[in-house]
Design a protein that fits this description.
Elements: H1 7-11, H2 24-37, E1 43-46, H3 52-63, E2 68-71, E3 92-93, E4 98-99, H4 102-111, E5 118-121, H5 125-130, E6 136-141, H6 147-157, E7 161-169, H7 182-192, E8 196-202, E9 205-210
Parallel strand pairs: 1-2, 1-6, 2-5, 6-7
Antiparallel strand pairs: 3-4, 7-9, 8-9
The structure holds S-adenosyl-L-homocysteine and magnesium ion.
């Protein structure tokens, strides 16, 4: 399929204007995941940031009339803080002295027409997971990339993936010179658990299907 023909690009004409960290092939795959998994139940992402992954998954979910929960405290990961590599000064709120990506996130999902699809959860991932009890058809992990944060997200959310559901992990670099290893480590844990089978890899996006 030529890239322009993909259904995501027929529904999203401002991808390049959204701040974020997602390649086009990964974006297409997230759309397909949302569309295919939403049939089984709600989807959830950790790490909405300015809404880029949210819109890709959400446009797929919308096709099925489904729901996408997007968990993010919107205060940025380590690498988004002032003086760090991925700091964006336009997202810094000088009144609170913190990053705040939530206003831009809301603008993005509104512009994409996802107000009736996306449920933002503005909270730390660990807190949102603590009493979560709804089986999820898709969990997309793209939050903090320290080992501590990635492990917390894996432990908190992987058990919530329903049988037949998908766990998707972003930023998997098998070569340590290409990027941090925390996402790769939790992907290996998913495989070693015996509860998930590998279901494909698109660029740095790893997919794992929950077995029965
Ligand atoms: N998926 C986004 C990028 C996410 S960047 C895209 O497609 O562009 C990582 C996000 O994870 C940041 O917005 C940060 O605020 C959030 N995050 C990091 N640690 C978190 C935690 N413990 N709880 C909730 N959100 C967290
Ligand atoms: Mg990422």
């Amino acid at each position: 399929m030529k890239q322009a023909d993909h259904p995501l690009w027929q529904r999203l004409d401002f991808f390049d204007q959204i701040k974020g960290f997602m390649a086009r092939d990964e974006a297409e795959n997230l759309y397909e995941l949302g569309r295919d998994q939403a049939r089984l139940g709600p989807c959830l992402e950790i790490g909405g940031y300015c809404g880029l992954s949210t819109v890709c998954i959400g446009l797929g979910v919308r096709e099925r009339g489904g729901v996408l929960f997007s968990v993010d405290h919107h205060q940025g990961s380590e690498e988004h803080q002032p003086d760090e590599e991925y700091h964006d000064a336009s997202l810094f709120d000088s009144r609170t002295g913190r990053m705040n990506s939530f206003p831009v996130f809301l603008q993005t999902i509104t512009r994409a027409g996802l107000q009736e699809t996306v449920v933002p959860i503005v909270a730390p991932s660990g807190l949102a997971a603590r009493q979560w009890a709804t089986p999820l058809s898709l969990v997309f992990i793209d939050g903090g990339h320290s080992f501590e944060a990635a492990l917390r997200d894996y432990r908190g959310w992987a058990p919530q993936v329903m049988i037949g559901g998908m766990l998707a992990v972003h930023d998997i670099f098998t070569d340590p010179s290409q990027g941090g290893q925390a996402p790769h480590e939790i992907a290996k844990m998913a495989q070693a658990s015996g509860l998930f089978e590998p279901a494909g890899m698109v660029n740095t996006l790893g997919l794992f299907r929950r077995l029965g």
